[in-house]
Amino acid sequence: GLDGGGGGGLNFYAFFQNELIPLVDATYSTNTENRTIMGHSYGAYFVMFQMFDFVENPLFDNIICLDNQFWWADMYLLEKATEAFDNNLELPFKLYMGAAQFANFDTNSLINEFMDRLEAANPSVLKYKFERYNDGHSFSAKNGFQLGLNYIFNE
Prior knowledge:
The protein has helices at about 10-25, 40-55, 70-85, 105-120, 140-155; strands at about 35-40, 60-65, 95-100, 125-135. It is α/β, with parallel strands linked by helices. The mean pLDDT is about 90.
């Protein structure tokens, strides 16, 4: 398949699967049934890429996605999400989406488009929350990660 638009996502996923997660699990007491990943900007793209491209073998149960760059790779990820929604694919995740009010127009308009498609599809298994912050792109991570963790673990 396409590598999420050619940004190295397949290699990064393999690194998590084959190296990082086994090392963390061997070193620390972890809950292997409740893993969380967070990403901002292009990092947000990766966390959602692995959510849709590896739905049959997800490494993470909880996704915190801030200011996703849906425009990357000719909107590959938006197409993957739409395909999943159209096919009523079960998405066994808890998703927190955040967006900066003052991010660039393309980022915000595509995040809005994704949320419109998500809300229209209303997937039965996926739990999600969306918030927009009164911040610019660079500052949205500070508040967003804290709010996302609160949603994942307390709501």
